[in-house]
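Office hours follow-up: a student asked to see two folded examples consecutively, so here they are.
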Amino acid sequence: MDYNSIINKYYPEDNALRRILLTHSRAVADKALAIAAAHPELPIDTAFVEEAAMLHDIGIVRCNAPGIECFGTEPYICHGRIGAEMLREEGLPRHARVCERHTGAGLTEEDIVSQQLPLPHQSFLPETLEEQLICYADKFFSKTRPDQEKTLEQAERSLAKFGQPGLIRFRHWAELFG
C-alpha cells in the first residue's frame, strides 16, 4: 500500500495544511517505529504502523480548525471518524480503525454520550498493539507545533484535561512502550 498516493488524492496541493499533516504524521510514525525497534519482544507490524501513522489524521481536511489551516465544515473532534470513512472507501479497514481510535487516548461510549460529542455512540478505544502504539506516539506531537516533541509530562498534562481514564490508559502505554 502506498500511503503517499492516498495523501496525494486528498491533499493534492502543496499548501500549509498538507505540510502540517505530513510533518505531524511523519513525527508520529518515526516515534512509533523507534518504540517498536526498542521492543523486539512485542509483535508489532512495523510496515502497518508506518502506513497507519502516516494516514491517522487524513480526515482533518474536512474539518474546521483554522488554527491548523483546516477550512472544512465538520467539527475537529470528528476527524478520526471522517478519516476512517475515507480509508474504508480506499479499502483499508485496518488503517481506518487507527483513525477512529486515536483521539485523546481513545474514547469510550460513555465519553461520547456524557460529553454529547457528535460521534456514533460506541467505543473508540485502541485495541490492537499497533492502534495503541500509534495513539500513544501521537500524544507527543501537536499540529500547532508539529516539529516539536512533547515530554512525557507535557503529554500527560494535555491528556489530564480530559479526565483520568484516558490518562490511566496513556500511563499504561508509557509502561508498555517506555
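And the second, which I mentioned at the end of office hours:
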Amino acid sequence: MEIFCKHSLKSYNTFGIDVSADVFIIINMDDELRGYLRSQEPGHGHFLILGGGSNILLTRDLSATVLKINTKGREIISEDEENIDLKVAAGEDWDELVAFSVANGWGGLENLSGIPGQVGSSPMQNIGAYGTELKDHFLSLEAMDRTSGEIIHFDTERCQFGYRDSIFKRAMKDRMIITHVTFRLKKQPVFNLSYTALQQKLSHLSGDNLNLSLIREAVLEIRRSKLPDTKVVGNAGSFFKNPVVSREALDELKGHFPGIVYFESSHPHEKAGGKAKLAAGWLIEQCGWKGYREGDAGVHKDQALVLVNYGNATGREILALSEKIRDSVLEKFGVTLEREVNVI
C-alpha cells in the first residue's frame, strides 16, 4: 500500500482534470483493501474508488480519501474443449486484457478493443462497442463489501446488466468494490460482425482469412478514426448515452426529422417493449455543437458525442458545457440525454 497526501489526480483521469485528493492510496493487493476497510469506523469517513479514471469527470478537489485499485493477475480457473474461464484482477488494464485474449486465440472480447479503463470498472456500466457488450462474455465477479470486507459473488443475473448499466450503478452503488471479474471466452471464436462499419472494414476478407487479430485491428482503426486519443486530448469517450425511446416517440420524431439516426435495441426487455435507441451524437450535431469550443472545453470536431479538454479546462467548465448541450437537445427534440460519465 502506498499513501500520499494532497496528491494531484491529473494523471489518474483521462479528462486530465487537475484536482487533488487529501489522501491518495494505491492498493496493490486485496488484503490491503480489506485491511483498509476494516480499519475504518462504521459510517465514518468517505472514500472514492478510482480505477482507470476513464469514465469520470472531477469537478472539485476531494476532501475524501481516494483508493486507486492497482491489483494484478490473470488465471485460467476452468477449461474444456470449447471454453476458457479466465479470472482477472480488477486493476488490470482493459485493453491489455483484450490483447492478451486475442494473442491466445480466445474469442469474445475483440470487439471491445481500445476501450480505456480497468477490468474492475467494466461490469459497472456493462461496457460495449461494435455489436458486443461485456455481459455477452461475462461469467461472474467477486466484490468486496465496503462495510465488512466480505467477498460477495455475482453471476450475470445478479448483476442486472442493462444498456451501460448494472446493479453497481443502482442498488449496489457505493456498497461494493469489484475485485475480480471472470470471463468465459471461446476457443473456437464466433466472429461478431453485426456492426456495419466493422462489416465494411473487413468485407474484402473471406471467412477462412478472418481472425481475431484482424478484427481487433479493424476495431482499433475505427476507434482511431472516430474518437480522440486520451493520451493526446483529454476526454472520457462518449459523454452521453444513446437515449432509449418508445416506438411511438420514434415515429413522431421521424415525422418531424426524417433523417433521424436510430438503432434497434439489443436488450430483450427493450425489444419486447418496442423501444429503440436514438444516436445521441446525431442529436447533438443537429444542434450545432460538433467542433464547438469554449476556452479549453469543447466538443470533438469528428464526434459530437465526445466532450474534450484541450488543455486546462476545469471539470466545472466541461460540466457546464454538457448542460448547455443537454438543454438544447431537449428543446429541439424533446429528448433528455443521460450522462454516461460519472460526475464528482
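Two things to take away from it. The longest strand covers residues 176-186. The chain has a mean pLDDT of 93.
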